[in-house]
């Protein structure tokens, strides 16, 4: 095939594209042929090397589609919500891999997740069905995602009305979770691993806060039951009121709990100190306290009329827990 | 080679050719194919994508009685190359980790 015939056929095959795009492709191939001929190659051979006009056109159209999609998705619409619902929701589940999750209350509005998935790497499944809002993110193609991990600091932000009355599960891995300002949760689960969790100003009947190898910071929490668990790191709690149960548990990290208020309190670690204060009268509590190496300011006592329970246990650390009114 | 991975590598190879000096289609194919297989129809969308992302700019110049389109690297393109190079040490660690694990057999 000669140059003119090839280009004419190619243009014919590209009929669907815009004139300007077709012209650019024509120029591109025309130039390659001219350069090839000037290098001493045979016109027919150069053109044969390209493949058939049909196959080139097919590929060009496909590339063009991909290119257009890319152009549509790249505008920096970081704040534009893509995962949103105004349907009534009773349960919200947001899970991510290796990306920080931030839960942010809004005074009113819809439930939405703000996140810009990166091409190739981030895979998101999103659904709202039967009152369940489910957003799940995971990473694909480890090698590529690994390369991109260091580029933009990524965060997934969940926005929900501060008075949202329902269940909330937020789970990440290898990245922090922060939650604040929700006044009406029934069941809350904030989970990650190898990273820290910070939770403040929450009212939630049943609350689980769990990580490993990362610190926990909780303050101004109220509800029925709280479990805050980590390992190899510290727990710091301030002003937590959970009448039916308050558990702070770690290993190899200190526990500092100030202004704790509950009828059933468990504070346990190993190899570190437990300090803090409990709101109430010491005489109301049946107390079990134990440390192997360290001072302990609590007694071990239990009388039948004591309805409240306090368990404080560590080894290799001191215990200093005060009672305040 | 995995197609997505190859795509990323081709981008970098093209940019590295342009880092030496501005160049044109025929020449770029010649240089890149010394290292990795690339066809004319593969190069075209790469150039277009790199241009729209600002990694390269284009200009036209008279040559032998016709115009030739030249591609010239821009700062974001140079940044991409540098990022790629700085990732190499970490990439090596991953490769040797994978290699080691796949050779090791627990008896």
What does this molecule look like?
The complex is a heterodimer of chains A (325) and B (107). Chain A is an alpha/beta fold and 325 residues long. Chain A is 21% helix and 42% strand. Chain A is built from five helices and 20 strands. Chain A has a 20-stranded mixed sheet that branches. In chain A, helix 1 packs antiparallel against helix 2 and helix 1 crosses helix 4. Chain B has a two-stranded antiparallel sheet with strand order 1-2. Classes of the chains: A alpha/beta (325), B alpha+beta (107). At the A-B interface, helix 2, helix 4 and helix 5 of A face helix 1, helix 2, helix 3, strand 2 and helix 4 of B.
Question: Key features?
Answer:
heterodimer; A: 325 residues; alpha/beta; 20-stranded mixed β-sheet; 5 helices; 20 strands; 42% strand; elongated; B: 107 residues; alpha+beta; two-stranded antiparallel ribbon; 4 helices; 15% strand
Brief account:
With 325 residues, chain A is of the alpha/beta class. Helices cover 21% and strands 42% of the residues of chain A.
User: Which range best describes the helical content of chain A: under 10%, 10-25%, 25-40%, 40-55%, 55-70% or over 70%?
Assistant: 10-25%
Helical coverage of chain B, percent range: 55-70%
Number of helices of chain A: 5
In percent, how much strand structure appears in the residues of chain A?
A: 35-45%
From the alpha-carbon coordinates, what is the Rg of chain A to the nearest angstrom? 31 Å
The strand order across the widest sheet of chain B is 1-2
Structural class call of chain A reads alpha/beta
Poorly predicted runs of 5 or more residues of chain B:
none
By DSSP, the count of extended strands of chain B is 2
- Characterize the main sheet of chain A: 20 strands, mixed
Radius of gyration of chain B: 17 Å
Shape of chain B: elongated
Number of strands of chain A: 20
- Could you state the oligomeric state of the chains shown? heterodimer
Most strands sheet of chain B: 2 strands, antiparallel
Shape descriptor of chain A: elongated
The chain-level mean pLDDT of chain B equals 89
Distance between the termini of chain A: 95 Å
Number of helices of chain B: 4
How much of the polypeptide of chain B forms β-strand, as a percent range? 5-15%
The most extensive interface between chains reads: A-B, 32 and 25 residues
